[in-house]
Amino acid sequence: MKSKFLLPAIFIAVFALSRIPGLMPLNFSVAYAFAFCAGVYFRGAMAWWLPLGVMLATDIGLNCYYASHGVNVWDLADLENLFFNYAAYAVLIFLGHRFKPQSSFIGLLGGGLLGAILFYFITNTASWLFNPFHNPEYTRSLAGWIIALTKGTGGYPSTWEFFRNTLLSGGIFTALFAAAQKLTAESPAEKTAGTREPATEAEAEPEEAKA
């Protein structure tokens, strides 16, 4: 029972703290590992509503913060871009379901890195395909797609730099979450604590004799 509540609490606390404005570099986020590991370690509806609900709550909080500082974050283009992110997070949760909590550390790390790569390709391809910000570089051609995946739009760091941070943070935080799971997992002794061992035949004889 310990890990049933402790592990989600660790996931939420680390993710929420990481969203403090200015704390992390651009695209260096806990979100990729949070979504992937939720799919690995949580079952049923919790694997979906917990990460997506926490992300939504923190996104609303961040938007309110930036809006209070005069940044326009509620226009349609920003909301469409946010939708692409959530679609990618859902894919990461689904990917996490393909793994088991007992999977090897290397296997989970590889899954976290794969999730970060998928997030990068999904969100940047969606930005190129739908182009909510009307970036002139994102022409409907192979060249425009390659620009979206490598250079990005003018006035911002290159997309490959975002990819580097996405990949690094996906790997690092997946490793941390996997380690946290192993530390909070119940030992065999804890699982059987408080249960009564079946009576042996020798122990049962005196009871039968009383009858």
Task: Tell me about this structure.
The chain has 211 residues and is mainly α. The chain has one domain: Orthogonal Bundle (Arp2/3 complex 21 kDa subunit ARPC3). The protein has helices spanning 2-18, 31-41, 46-68, 76-97, 105-130, 142-150, 159-184, 188-192, 201-210. The relative contact order is 0.15. The model is unreliable at 188-196 and 207-211 (pLDDT under 50).
In short, what is this structure?
By secondary structure, the protein is an all-alpha fold.
Strand % is under 5%
Low-confidence stretches: 188-196, 207-211
Number of domains: 1
In N-to-C order, the SSE pattern is HHHHHHHHH
> What portion of residues is helical?
over 70%
Distance between the termini: 39 Å
Number of helices: 9
Strand tally:
0
CATH topology, anyone? Arp2/3 complex 21 kDa subunit ARPC3
Give me the CATH architecture, please.
Orthogonal Bundle
**Gyration radius from CA atoms, angstroms:** 23 Å
On the 0 to 100 scale, the average pLDDT is 85
Instruction: Report the biggest beta sheet as strand number plus sense, adding barrel if it closes.
Output: none
What structural class do helix, strand and pairing data support?
A: mainly alpha
Note the overall shape: globular
CATH class: Mainly Alpha
Quick tags:
about 0% strand, Arp2/3 complex 21 kDa subunit ARPC3, mainly alpha, about 70% helix, globular, about 210 residues
Topology:
Blueprint: H1 2-18, H2 31-41, H3 46-68, H4 76-97, H5 105-130, H6 142-150, H7 159-184, H8 188-192, H9 201-210
Helix pairs in contact: 1-7, 2-3, 2-4, 2-5, 2-7, 4-5, 5-6, 5-7
